[in-house]
Amino acid sequence: MKKLVSLLLALTMIISCTAAMAAEDGKITIWTWDPNFNIAAMKVAKEMYAAVNPDVEVVIEEVLSEDIETRVTTAATSNTIDTLPDIMLCQDNSFQKMVLSYPEVYANITGKYDFEGFGAGKLAYSTVNGQNHGIPFDAGTVVATYRTD
Questions:
Q1: d(CA 41, CA 56)
Q2: CB-count burial class (<10 Å; 0-12, 13-18, 19+) for 125
Q3: pLDDT digits over 83-117, tens only?
Q4: Which residues pair with 30 in a beta bridge?
Q5: What percent of the chain has pLDDT above 70?
């Protein structure tokens, strides 16, 4: 139950961090994948956010992880970052590479949220050069495993 509550709070933080942008056009767009987990979680977050912000439309679009990376690259290299969503879920292992390659795409949110409750390994994925550029979404394992043969 404690993990579920933590996840829901993280989801609310994720959507809340775009509130200023949403004020401009009244809409928050989210790109993510996996209808059984990521999209389902974003739907819960959307309901929680709507309860407090009923005038903001939250749009969840299913976009494959590798397609998100391609779209970020295309938008950054063509100087059209305004085509990107307000929120996008990214794979841990590619996030730092994307922030380092295209820093203009990712906001520095250091000091805006309490990151104290996240595991150090998970938090490290969303931290680049000592700055937070994302909020960890889940508590996925940060470990490598090897076959015995």
A1: 18
A2: buried
A3: 999 999 988 888 999 999 999 999 999 998 888 88
A4: 60, 87
A5: 77
